[in-house]
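A reminder from the course coordinator: this example appears on the midterm review sheet, so study it carefully.

Given structure:
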């Protein structure tokens, strides 16, 4: 239960990955949403397990890895923030998927937002790994299982519950507001990465 609550507490905050998964859930066909949820869950599970296995301590002892990831992640988030800001200004978004690109393009962007975001490493490898390893031997893996279940619950809910908001997003102005919020979130996260927070 502790792992479930701690894992949820770390991933529920609106970040780049969550905002983009919401966007995918709103506008993409079900197969894209399934693939997107699987990407998020698999990445979280792999990183949580690696953190419990001790990779977090290794990453913590090699700060250059985090510095490179921080700047690469910030650059990526700035580019995607600019694209979201452009969509917000143009207001041309709709709920219709864009054909053959409806699967590949959003999933590639989601993979980049997942793996180029240094916060995901800090939250899963370092923080969850550290908390898990403070538990008694067998309990640390139960903690990790709870954190993974929290991740599955959150990403599945976010990806598929987004469909409930589709009537609201039938209007262009709602898309413009969402894209403006996504741009703001991406710029704030990029800024925090650049100043080292």
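Designed residues:
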């Amino acid at each position: 239960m502790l792992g479930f609550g701690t894992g949820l507490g770390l991933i529920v905050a609106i970040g780049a990955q969550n905002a983009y998964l919401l966007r995918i859930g709103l506008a993409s066909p079900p197969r894209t949403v399934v693939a997107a949820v699987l990407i998020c869950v698999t990445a979280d599970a792999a990183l949580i397990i690696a953190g419990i296995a001790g990779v977090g301590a290794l990453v913590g002892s090699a700060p250059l890895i985090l510095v490179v990831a921080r700047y690469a992640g910030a650059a990526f988030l700035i580019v995607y923030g600019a694209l979201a800001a452009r969509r917000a200004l143009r207001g041309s978004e709709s709920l219709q998927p864009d054909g053959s690109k409806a699967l590949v393009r959003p999933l590639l962007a989601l993979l980049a937002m997942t793996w180029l975001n240094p916060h995901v490493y800090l939250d899963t490898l370092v923080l969850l790994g550290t908390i898990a390893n403070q538990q008694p031997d067998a309990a640390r893996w139960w903690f990790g299982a709870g954190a993974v279940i929290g991740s599955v619950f959150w990403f599945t809910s976010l990806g598929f519950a987004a469909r409930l908001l589709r009537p609201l997003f039938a209007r262009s102005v709602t898309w413009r507001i969402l894209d403006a919020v996504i741009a703001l979130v991406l710029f704030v996260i990029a800024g925090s990465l650049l100043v080292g927070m």
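Residues 2-194 form one domain. The first helix runs from residue 2 to 11.
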